[in-house]
Amino acid sequence: MGFARTCSVALVGVEGVVVEVQADLEPGVAAFTLVGLPDKSLIESRERVRAAVVNSGAEWPQKKLTVGLSPASVPKGGSGFDLAVACAVLGAAERLDPRELTDLMMIGELGLDGRVRPVRGVLPAVLAAADAGYRQVVVPEQTAAEASLVPGISVLGVRSLRQLIAVLADEPVPDEEDPREEGRPDPLLAGLVVPGTGVSAGLPTGDHTPDLADVAGQHSARRALEVAAAGRHHIFFKGPPGAGKTMLAERLPGLLPPLSSKEALEVTAVHSVAGTLPPGAPLVLRPPYCAPHHSATMASLVGGGTGLPRPGAVSLAHHGVLFVDEAAECSPRVLDALRQPLESGHVVVARAAGMMRMPARFLLALAANPCPCGRHGTTGGGCECRPSSIRRYRARLSGPLMDRVDLRIAVEPVARSELVALGRGAETTAAVAERVLAARERAEARLAGTPWQTNSQVPGHELRTRWQVHPGALAPAERDLECGLLTARGLDRVLRVAWTAADLSGRDRPTLDDVNWALELRTGVRRGAATATGGSGSTRKTAKAATSSHGQA
Fold first, then answer.
1. Which homologous superfamily does the CATH classification assign to the domain defined by 212-426?
2. How much is the pTM?
């Protein structure tokens, strides 16, 4: 009788569970039994592993073979267990020393010819291994850079089972053909991408980013965009077609600071599981941008699918921007599914096969027309929509969802003079991003020693008691709360926006003007004097009273 064991990782969403792979050989009729709640792709590993072992020059044991995956109560799927199963079998057959396998973590799919194919989710799998105390992992060569992102882990990247057998048996390591060295495509990379998602869905590609200087006019909307980036406040653009709502939203990710090391690992882990991580770029350093079509389903937005759920758009936009264009055309039920992750920063999807918790701390940007035809309230008009149709159209954005949106901006059509003067004095993305970064640093210094990094994360109770505004500055917001124009959540969000406006202006605490401007965006009622956030190149005006057309929606 022979026995050997090694380890691998089962992914449940973006979290990993360490799985012990045990192989037992006993005298009897040659058979291969795999137990431990495997799915269809894992059951098929029996044929892949047998062929890979034989084609790698090793002898397949002609005995009764049982491979167990523990804990048996955890559902296991995917082809990433192939490498661990093959090594456990070879250890039980004494081709490899079982003692060399015990403390190894192995992740990888095997081809019939013995080549080790990369799989998705290597980063979260290695993170789970590190948390469990493992310090040595074996992964496919193509994902070794991704696994090396985890500190304190020794990573061995192999291209074939033959190479791994030679390393573990202390034999000369054979060379394997690398198609990339000959300029040919590497077919093994196909396993890293989910069909239909694209190689870089949700991730910035190349060095080019849309420049804010391309946006003509829209001074109020530009300032609101700056505040949204500085404090991670959710924003809503409403205006006629062609006014620039989508242009503004597309430039929002460029204003966000680069991801911290912790945020980069979290974002990379999500995109690794989703199969949207670009090959050759193991670490995501820039905030992602995800813009699903307005016909997106519930599962595609918050996560789901058959079997165990998969990350949706809210998770792909983690620490980045989720832009929902034509929001009033979306299903109200789908849009309302955003309400919980907007508050908690994560989404919990429950299915019959299991429950999964995925990160979803994103900056939400919504855009919608004022009516079905898009011409309501514009100069020249021409809107033929009935008042009842306009009300129903606006009601598709529910009150509870809009109550979680801090900034509501009316995007007016651009004047001819502003369009002709495009590029003259308009601030670039880089210039605005510098002010955003300075405001973020000011907020982080104030919030040092707390679990929060931006103003949008600070609970309202802390803002009201721990960090005080200027005396009397909160009086207008308190009056609106008494009159029913503000909810308790709305008051907290007004305070957060006011603190961000103060950080952009370099003030130590919000003034009456900051609170008035935040209230103006919230209620649509113009009040107080104009405020300024500093910086040259564009005039900082208060939001126009036109925001009132959605202020009560």
1. P-loop containing nucleotide triphosphate hydrolases (3.40.50.300)
2. 0.86
